[in-house]
Amino acid sequence: MKKFLLSGVITVFLSSLCWYFFIKDYNYKVTFKTHQAPGIVYSSLVGWNNWEPMNKKAVSTISKVPFSELNQELHVSDSIVDIKWSIERTSDSITKVTAFLRDAEHCLYQKIKGPFTKTDFEKRSVKTVKHIWEGLKMHEAEYKLSAVLEATFPETTCAYITLSCKMNEKAKLMMAHTIDVMDYLRNNNIKLIGDPFLQVTDWELNEDFITFDFCFPIANQNTYPESVLIKVKTIEEKKALKTVFNGNYRISDRGWFMLLDYANRNNIQIEINPIEIFLNDPHNGGNELDWAAHIYMPIKTD
After folding, report:
1. 9 or 199: which leads in pLDDT
2. Which CATH superfamily is domain 149-298 in?
3. What would the 3-class secondary structure string for the chain be?
């Protein structure tokens, strides 16, 4: 009996060693929780370099699965840290973020020293993930989102210009092209009858790239003057999920991620073509948390 128990202990010990040295593909794991939707965490990690100081833009994204996984390389001094991020919604209000960190050049060395001492790599790993957690906390204070509800986007006729860009460039692109649409309306005596809005027509999730129509509501008439840049269309009434975003329109896509997350958790089939109505003119300045946008995510009807 003793030999059997000893044999079992040795087998478990050797299996554990084999897993630790040859199967486990990371040196250290750090986990934290946040109230932000998985898409917001994912987008913040993809844009890591965007909110770092100029001398610390040292992150490369190697691969990604939208809203759930990221593999990144972080260059620190003369070393490279491989980070695999896992993003998981664990309840209606909690997202768990786990970072699996690996010393790309000294992985085995870290595994040997790890059980006996707190290495510099371990300290740096904790510091790195804490930096991300603190960044997310700061980001959370930059915007507000209302509770999600079902609503109707009304039928609307609009003059629009089609634009394409990285998601974080959409506000800048809209501001640059507002004059194109407004000139068309003024030059042709067409009255603006509502707030401008965008309608996403294509969202390439893996590339964080969108194509959208920047629209200005106008009154119906039989014909409209032709233009190389500006077109006119009527958007049909749409049942949709809706939230109200407050903050800089540069990050209003936080509302998109919230609506996607809500639809996923509640098994609601949606069209991934968000619509945003902008109630404030950024040119007027003011407190950004007072800026509002109504964000719709159409619900599939078939």
Report:
1. 199
2. Regulatory factor, effector binding domain (3.20.80.10)
3. CHHHHHHHHHHHHHHHHHHHHHHCCCCEEEEEEECCCHHHHHHHHHCHHHHCCHHHCCEEEEEEECCCEEEEEEEECCEEEEEEEEEEECCCCCEEEEEEEEECCCHHHHHHHCCCCCCHHHHHHHHHHHHHHHHHHHHHCCEEECCCEEEEECCEEEEEEEEEEEHHHHHHHHHHHHHHHHHHHHHCCCCECCCCEEEEEEEECCCCEEEEEEEEEECCCCCCCCCCCCEEEEECCEEEEEEEEEECHHHCHHHHHHHHHHHHHCCCCECCCCEEEECCCHHHCCCHHHCEEEEEEEECCC
